[in-house]
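Standup notes, structure subgroup. Blocker cleared on the S-adenosylmethionine input:
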Amino acid sequence: MPWDPDQYELFSGPRTRPALDLLRSFGVSDPEYVVDLGCGIGHLTAILAKRWPAARVEGIDNSSTMLARARELDANITWTCGDISQWEPEAPVDVLFSNAALHWLDDHPGLIGRLVATLSRESVLAVQMPDNHREPSHHVAVRLAGHPRWRRALEPVVRESSVLKPDEYLQLLQPYVDTVDIWRTTYLHVLDGEHAVADWVQGSFLKPFLDALGVEEADSYLSEYRSRISRHYPALPDGTTLFPFTRLFIVAQRRND
Ligand SMILES: C[S@@+](CC[C@H](N)C(=O)[O-])C[C@H]1O[C@@H](n2cnc3c(N)ncnc32)[C@H](O)[C@@H]1O
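Run returned:
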């Protein structure tokens, strides 16, 4: 799916906050190899590199447009174009970080098993994923995709959320690590703009839908989506819109003691 860095960056402040919360939630001393899966435009990979300047840091993404932006950031980071589902590290990984990316992959039991197998003896797997698929921003998009006007084009791209329940991640991880910390946070984003929620979703969840439609059909789908979504997220008196967004965090640590 071709990602649009500019659309994604429209809300870079509120999109970055959960990643910073994730980064603050774990510590690892002197990691040698740090990997950012689904690194996008690389701004978080650069934070990882600053935090552990002696480590070899690699960002992996399958979008050449996002990686092109990342490459402008830091020449000391290795930027790798590749699919997370096929990825095999060069060495055991000490920090395996992934923010807002793994929910794009299917089969999380298989995925988590593969990721945990890449970890070194003293390491951390730190993941944040949107867990918002029950909210109007998402189910309105899916319901609209079933409308006769767009159904044929959109049927192949509508997918069930692959994000599991917290206890399922706990059970998948517990046999392989020493501690697992899992939590959900609902961020109450206050957004500016007439179509703030639609603009946000357009940069992520709606992308595959819009990409699957021709320009004219994408415009009509988006305008219908905007109109339906505004009923669920009415503007506040000052013109801003409150957008509740739930995210799931997983921090699994291995300790060599
Ligand atoms: C929502 S962006 C998040 C980017 C970055 N981690 C951040 O938090 O700003 C999701 C990123 O995951 C990447 N991605 C999605 N599926 C992927 C896959 N199967 N393999 C590699 N990258 C993938 C996309 O290209 C995109 O750059």
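Discussed briefly. The radius of gyration is 19 Å.
Next: hand off to the docking folks.
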